[in-house]
Amino acid sequence: MRLPFTKMHGLGNDFVVIDTRSRPIALSDDQKRRIADRRRGIGCDQLILLEPSRRADVFMRIFNPDGSEAGACGNATRCVAGRLMAEQGVERIRVETISGLLETSAADRGEIAVDMGEVKTDWRDIPVAEACDTLHLPLALGPLADPVGVNVGNPHAVFFVPDVTAIDLAKLGPALEHAPLFPERANIEIVQRLASGKLRMRVWERSAGITQACGSGACATLVAAARRGLTDRKAEVVLDGGTLTIEWLPNNHVRMTGGWTTSFQGEIELGEIQVREAVNG
């Protein structure tokens, strides 16, 4: 079976988006891994399936390159919202995920703003394996120590360092992601304060490795920096792939604003694919 897809990215964080709203399908883990493979498939940081929803304009299902399901992806949300806004000629789209409903709206310069939902900072909600102060998680490896724990739809450990370029994230990221402290593993951010309103961030995403950008990671970074008193509740977060504007709102939600891009469209041959009946919400 030939399956149509759209390749999209948000600041270099790239996605294969497959629209299954009119024909629900069930992909095997092997098929998901094949699509994400950069040598044998299309290649992406995450695979996105668009499904029908009773509570929103679309249900966005997110899969990591290893086939596991993720709870949130801010860059993918901007891409999906931008695409649907363009298709429908509207300026607001509601996106449902397994982590909840996300409200999106058109912003200046063609960017998309996403309300990423409520920030969680209790140790049970990160989650971590033991009761602790999430402002100072008991975790250290090499030059990295004393991270802040934040959940923005998925778990994050945010380390503050003098120079992000001096950290071997490729070496330290896998061990920190799988640290016993994190029963669901964690996304790992290393962050350098450039100014009161500007932070530099690099990220190791669980199951994906180093990526050009991570929207939920940028949100977690701003929240962690504000909790530590390193910046105000609104700042620019500079990632490898570009810059996002993040604001921690008075209602404890966090809003992310940034660009989105459609790279190309095509079809991939995946053999037999199971058709299923499903409407979310």
What does this structure look like?
With 281 residues, the chain is of the alpha+beta class. Helices cover 16% and strands 41% of the residues. It has two domains: 2-111 and 260-275, Roll (Diaminopimelate Epimerase, Chain A, domain 1), CATH 3.10.310.10; 117-257, Diaminopimelate Epimerase, Chain A, domain 1 (Roll). It has four helices and 21 strands. The chain has a 17-stranded mixed β-sheet that branches. A two-stranded antiparallel sheet has the order 3-21. The protein has a two-stranded antiparallel sheet with strand order 10-11.
Mean of residue pLDDT? Answer: 94
CATH superfamily of the largest domain: Diaminopimelate Epimerase, Chain A, domain 1
As a percent range, the share of helical residues equals 10-25%
Q: List the secondary-structure elements in sequence, H or E.
A: EEEHEEEHEEEEEEEHEEEHEEEEE
**Principal-axis shape:** globular
User: How much β-strand is present in the residues?
Assistant: 35-45%
| Number of separate structural domains | 2
Cα(first) to Cα(last) distance is: 28 Å
The parts where pLDDT drops under 50 for at least 5 residues are none
Structural class designation: alpha+beta
